[in-house]
Amino acid sequence: MNLRDIKKDIEYVIGAFVDDCALFLSVHPGKNADEVANLIDGAVDLFNELRDKLGKPEGNKKAYYDGIRKELLEKTDALYDQLSAAVKKGLGE
Q1: Whole domain around residue 48: which residue ranges?
Q2: What local confidence, expressed as pLDDT, does residue 1 receive?
Q3: Burial label, 33 (beta-carbon count in 10 A; 0-12, 13-18, 19+)
Q4: What is the per-residue DSSP string for 13-48?
Q5: CA distance 50 to 87
Q6: What is the rounded distance in angstroms from the CA atom of residue 52 to the CA atom of residue 78?
Q7: Which residues of 43-55 are buried (b: 16+ CB within 10 A; e: fewer)?
Q8: pLDDT tens sequence across 40-72
Q9: HSE on the CB side for 81, CA within 13 Å?
Q10: Number of domains in the chain
């Protein structure tokens, strides 16, 4: 994979997460809005952090970019776990 594909992956995955947060907020206004807004802020921070890392490859570029892709998926998965917990708490389940 090349750098352009990784940039698109970062934008797509984090964009999908932000869309899911926005969907929850629009369907359930006022339910854990602050907590979900903090998750969106965290996703934006992750986006900026990963995009910054792309410009500074260290060592083997393929391994470096594979590590960034792995980090993207792990950290986004953690954000989704937090969103799931916020949704359950917001809906009183």
Answers
A1: 3-90
A2: 62
A3: middle
A4: HHHHHHHHHHHHHHHSTTSSHHHHHHHHHHHHHHHH
A5: 26
A6: 20
A7: beebbeebeebee
A8: 999 999 999 999 998 888 888 888 989 999 999
A9: 6
A10: 1
Tokens 């998965």, residue located? 77
Residue-level pLDDT at 86: 86
- Tokens of residue 45, six digits: 């921070």
| 5-9: long-range contacts, CB 8 A cutoff, minimum separation 24 | 6/54, 6/65, 6/68, 6/69, 7/51, 7/54, 9/69, 9/72
Q: pLDDT of 4-23, one tens digit each?
A: 899 999 999 999 999 999 99
Mention every residue, 6+ apart, whose C-beta is less than 8 A from residue 14.
43, 44, 46, 47, 72, 76
The tokens describing 12, both together, are: 């797509």
The Cβ-side half-sphere exposure at 5, using a 13 Å CA radius, reads 6
**pLDDT at residue 62 in the model:** 87
